[in-house]
Design goal:
Largest sheet: 6 strands, parallel
Bound molecules: NADP nicotinamide-adenine-dinucleotide phosphate
CATH class of one domain: Alpha Beta
Shape: globular
Length: about 280
């Protein structure tokens, strides 16, 4: 049986209820060792899917301790108790563990060198998972797409803005790899059956993209050829957390294994906008 932490979040919502026992705050607080121990010993899962995290990248800069308590100490608790009960551990990480200075997409063989608090806490979580649990999977995701009705991230915002505006701006000097949470969840469930433990990138393919490229694609999917989207520098939207210029990744190991389950980001974005945003928000 698979037990997930932080399962009420965006990624957790894409795991089927009949495949995963879902836990979250308040009954399962990963920062509380006794709580983690009680929950995992009671259910005795063979596999722990550790999704719980502090995910507010900008908020982490002014809440370093809270971010580290959840992402580092929480992961230490989950990894330690998973080991106690002999469960396999799956941890979700981020391409923000990299500095963003590389030319070209990051692979699993590049060294981590985070430039913000969230990225540093997730990199430390990875290190703990490797150190404590021999049988582990780490999946790194990029710019996550998903959430439908609850999507307040870039795609959800652009979708809403395009209802009322025909002139928008989007940043074009930072690149990344979108990751459709629906495909990521399915890819994780499939890959964790293989026994091929280790660290994997699981992002959508079809080349890297900028927020500007994503906005153009959203307009295209919506048939809004009238919308003008100006490319702008990230200096126009200053944010508390530093981001590298390049957050893109390739699923290098999964490609080598011929086990890459992810579609192109344009296909994924179209599927998400048509299947979830239009369906839930119009
Ligand atoms: N979202 C992204 O863009 C992205 C990109 C790459 C990797 N990831 C990683 O993917 C994983 C899933 O992220 P997500 O997008 O699903 O994030 P999310 O929507 O923020 O979900 C995280 C969940 O964890 C819960 N949580 C927070 N603190 C907890 C604690 N102390 N104990 C137990 N649960 C706690 C949250 O509850 P509350 O909402 O009540 O706080 C929330 O339900 C995370 O490990 C994240 O680092 C996310």
């Amino acid at each position: 049986m698979i037990l997930a932490t932080g399962a009420n979040g965006m990624l957790g919502s894409y795991f089927p209820d009949d495949a995963v026992l879902k836990t979250d705050l308040p009954e399962m607080d990963v920062t509380d060792l006794e709580c983690v121990r009680e929950m995992l010993h009671r259910h005795r899962p063979t596999h722990v899917l550790h999704l719980a995290a502090w995910t507010d990248v900008d908020g982490a800069e002014s809440n370093v301790e809270a971010c580290y308590r959840t992402n580092v100490i929480g992961t230490l608790h989950v990894a330690s108790v998973a080991k106690e009960i002999g469960a396999v551990l799956t941890y979700i990480s981020t391409t923000q563990v990299f500095s963003g200075d590389k030319e070209g997409p990051y692979t699993e063989f590049d060294a981590v060198d985070p430039v913000n608090t969230y990225g540093a806490s997730k990199a430390e979580g990875e290190r703990i998972v490797r150190e404590i649990c021999d049988r582990h999977y780490i999946f790194r995701a990029g710019w996550m797409l998903g959430g439908g009705l609850k999507d307040h991230k870039f795609v959800g915002k652009m979708f809403d803005l395009m209802k009322t505006r025909d002139h928008l701006m989007a940043v074009d000097d930072k690149i990344g790899s979108p990751t459709y949470a629906k495909e990521l969840a399915a890819g994780i469930l499939s890959h964790i059956k293989t026994g091929l433990f280790g660290t994997y990138h699981m992002v959508n393919g079809g080349g890297v993209c900028s927020r500007h490229a994503m906005a153009l694609e959203i307009a295209r999917v919506l048939g809004r050829s009238d919308v003008v989207i100006d490319p702008v520098s990230s200096d126009r939207f200053p944010l508390p957390a530093r981001r590298g210029a390049n957050e893109s990744a390739s699923n290098y190991k999964l490609d080598l294994m011929r086990r890459n389950p992810m579609s192109s980001w344009k296909e994924a974005l179209a599927d998400y906008v048509r299947g979830e945003l239009i369906a839930s928000r119009r």
